[in-house]
Records
---
Amino acid sequence: MARAHDRSKSLLETARGLMPGGVNSPVRAFRAVGGVPPFIASAQGAYLVDEDGNRYVDYVCTWGPAILGHAHPQVVAAICAAAGRGTSFGAPTAAEVEMAEAVRRFFPSMEMMRMVSSGTEACMSALRVARGVTGRDGFVKFEGCYHGHADSFLIKAGSGLATFGQPSSPGVPESLARHTHTLPFNDADALKRLFDTRGDELAGVIVEPVTGNMGVIRPTDEFLKALEEVPRAHGALLIFDEVMTGFRVARGGAQDLFGIEADLTCLGKVVGGGLPVGVYGGKKQYMSQVSPTGPVYQAGTLSGNPLATAAGLATLALLEEPGAYQKVEDAAAALHAGLEALIEKLGVTAVVTRVGTMMTVFFAEKAPRDFTEVAACDHEKFGRFHGAMLDRGIYLPPSGYEAWFLSAAHGPYEIEQTLKAAEEALIA
Ligand SMILES: *Cc1c(COP(=O)(O)O)cnc(C)c1O
């Protein structure tokens, strides 16, 4: 059953001497599940092929962006055509105007926006805008939500709710950490209490409106209502980090799904069509405060890059075609139903959570509501499941704290193969 990984193994050994863990982003090292990460040679549609020639059905989809499947011919053609016209100008282009118009059709609350090169940049810039327009330094995030690796976001909550944040990475100054307040996800009361005591110090609240970075957790109605009402009642901004949920949980992200308008929105992943892109934007009154029309500084040599813009535009055009979402949602629903049936049949303690085209299998009695409940899931069991699926040609995110992603290239055949593998792997 076990596949050959000789070339991946030897590449990993060499890579470890050159890059921390042999990788350029930590989760790729497979620390949470063990084993050798396959080094990927190519990808097409729903499939990855590694350096040893093994083929996998891919449920990472480059952590979300590949919603149309890998190497979609129209996206590849758009990138190639753009490359021939020059890869970067450092000057405005017509494609950026077209791209901004397209993004606003999906996210009407993004009246004005700025393009950057990653989700991290989008989130740190949105926070800077919130701080700049309110003149306040503090802000609120939720435990288990990820907003990129900028200093202000790498902060853990202290024990009591009103305590100052502690850096969760060396290199993040404590003087900065004390402006970050971390609360449990789905805890409307904690949010109200914090704003009641410190509301006038807080610039905003940033949230993954459906979490993906601790696995898929749906927000409660009460929590959503508090997010909409509490910050604004205290003159603070609501920032939806839709880097993962944007174009994923619904066409217009969580805002579309829940009928909520954020003050500022962060996008990344799908919007770049597989190239490095982020976008932040929102109400004109806030975004007009960004340089050069306003005093909040933010810039980027490669921002609005022609290749990235071409990939993003081609992706959004395909997503605007009628039925584009139905196809991905149908695949996700079929996998969800099939896994639930297997869990029931095999008597495994597990639950499947899903919102749109993102889902997670948690090894627990019931769907977690926050980070503490995710941490209490059986992550050793997930590790065994992950390894058994990989051996059977199914590439899942290498951690039980992650979302799985579907694409338009995942058809009935791929779902059937995945369920066949899961029938054995769930009891591994
Ligand atoms: C991936 C992600 C980010 C960071 O984006 P990068 O492009 O990796 O910098 C921020 N927020 C959320 C919700 C994400 O999923």
---
Amino acid sequence: MKQIDWKQAPSPSFVVDERLLKRNLELLKSVQDRTGCDILLALKGFSMWSTFPMARDYLKGITSSSLFEARLGYEEFGKEVHAYAPAYADHEIDEYLKYVDHIVFNSFDQLARHKEKVQALDKHVSIGLRVNPGYSEVETPLYDPCYTNSRLGIPFESFKPEELDGVEGIHFHAMCEQNADVLERILVHFEEKYGEYLHQMKWINFGGGHHITREDYDVELLIKLINRIQETYDVKVILEPGEAIALNTGYLVATVLDTIKNGMDLAILDTSATCHMPDTLEMPYRPMIIGSGMPNEKKYTYRLGGMTCLAGDVIGDYSFDEPLKAGDRLVFTDMAHYTMVKTHMFNGVNLPSICLYNEEEGVKVVRTFGYEDYRNRLS
Ligand SMILES: *Cc1c(COP(=O)(O)O)cnc(C)c1O
């Protein structure tokens, strides 16, 4: 594969490689083709809408967890629009219903509150309920939908089989960056509790968190599980990954602005952990940089920090073969998902430009940001 010439990209910028995105989409489509299941893009994880014309050739539609995501999916993706939210506000539900064809409620009260409106529409919107399967293997509470006292999904104790009138689907989401063996174990718990109600449903949504495009993911087991559930209960399986669609398809290009010393070598970059890759602080995790090593693995180790005044705006410690100097380019990998969607302008720091890459056209800048974007968020 032809190497990207990073000097073509503005700094800082996100660069998504269309070749890699296409590879992920092809794998996801093969799962759809081999099972008849539907795969949706969860916009929460990846909403770079300049890629939607490509993604819509492969996926069934999108899923949204807010009114704006639903509208973006409706206007820019243009296939099925699903929605789930912990609660829908009365002043938003009418607009929501213009965009969606599936809507998932988080409680029987929400179902009762909005059901009449859904059923009075002159189009069919399929109603689902999100349940909490009561079992997950996510180790970070911030990302565990089944954590103690979770507000996400109806716990089995509150499930009311006598109130399922008009409900066509069941939804659960209990995974994060996991393989199919975790799904298999969740299904054991899910079926034990909710299996008997699945026979009367049209669809079952396994949520997101399936790391399908990761190298060691067990696609064959996923296909087996989908086929078994579809055959046992005569339902359609829906998956709604976000991360798996954009996994390992994008980069964040940054530049060293200065190097200083305080007990160790420090480098200040024209990007920011908190503004441009907040998951490095929240998850937390250590992004890779092309050509770098772990601290002290290579000759020159630096602590890389962002350009805000937040003391903790630190990306991590990295080592390099050569000393860093102002003007050097650093390229962070796997920066397409849960980055662009999470950026903000804290401290007045501008957002990275958004770029696409393909071999014919090279790096194309699709969006740059400026002072107006910062000012318009405030008043
Ligand atoms: C976040 C989320 C997803 C997508 O999860 P990924 O980890 O990005 O695959 C899907 N469904 C729901 C309900 C979510 O909250």
